[in-house]
Amino acid sequence: MEGSEFDEAEFFRAIAASGARALLIGRRALVALGLPVLTADYDFWIHVDDAAAFNAAAEPFGLVPTRTPDEARARGRYVLENDERVDVLVARTVPTVDGVTVSFEDVWSRRRVQPLGADVQVALPSLNDLILTKRFGGRPRDLEDIRLIEALRAEEA
């Protein structure tokens, strides 16, 4: 694996410009919202038809997909990696640990565009939908993240 000079702002610009329907999820979404969490990777949920466009946007950053778009659709996920890691969920629907089916189309229709700086923005799920995505895994840290999102939601109300 070869190291790269990764520029997060440029990465987000490239994704936005690619036309790929891509939602930043996971802890990096919480960071984008200004919440005090640490993470070492990126997590995206993309539309099942947009893997090739998403991969093309990531390619200039030295990020190499572990699966072809067809393989990714069949498996529901893949990774883009180099010295950075991007976990990519490619599924029309995903169940939560308590059996709620979450649809990409529904979450995409309610997305919020989060500004991150000069001419940089990223698509995030709404706060309610971000909570649902944190219920995909049900890990202890996801429960803490949900608590933080709920506090932010209460502040915004």
What does this protein look like?
The chain contains 7 helices and 9 strands, in the order H-E-H-E-H-E-H-E-E-E-E-H-E-E-H-H. With 157 residues, it is of the alpha+beta class. It has a single domain (8-151), classed as Beta Polymerase, domain 2 (2-Layer Sandwich), CATH 3.30.460.40. The strands form 3 sheets. Strands 1-2-5-4-3 form a 5-stranded mixed sheet, with helices on both faces. The longest helix is centred in the last third of the chain and has 17 residues, at 140-156. The radius of gyration is 15 Å and the shape is globular. The relative contact order is 0.18. The mean pLDDT is 94.
- Give the helices and strands as they follow along the chain: HEHEHEHEEEEHEEHH
- Please count the helical segments: 7
Return the domain count. Answer: 1
Question: Which descriptor suits the 3D outline?
Answer: globular
- What is the CA-CA span between the terminal residues? 45 Å
Kindly provide the radius of gyration, computed on alpha-carbon positions and rounded to a whole number of angstroms.
15 Å
In percent, how helical is the residue content? 40-55%
CATH topology: Beta Polymerase, domain 2
Give the spatial strand order of the biggest sheet. Answer: 1-2-5-4-3
Task: Report the biggest beta sheet as strand number plus sense, adding barrel if it closes.
Answer: 5 strands, mixed
- What's the CATH class, please? Alpha Beta
Number of distinct beta strands: 9
Shape-level CATH architecture: 2-Layer Sandwich
What's the average pLDDT? Answer: 94
Structural class by secondary-structure content: alpha+beta
β content, as a range? 15-25%
Q: Which segments are poorly predicted (pLDDT under 50) over 5 or more consecutive residues?
A: none
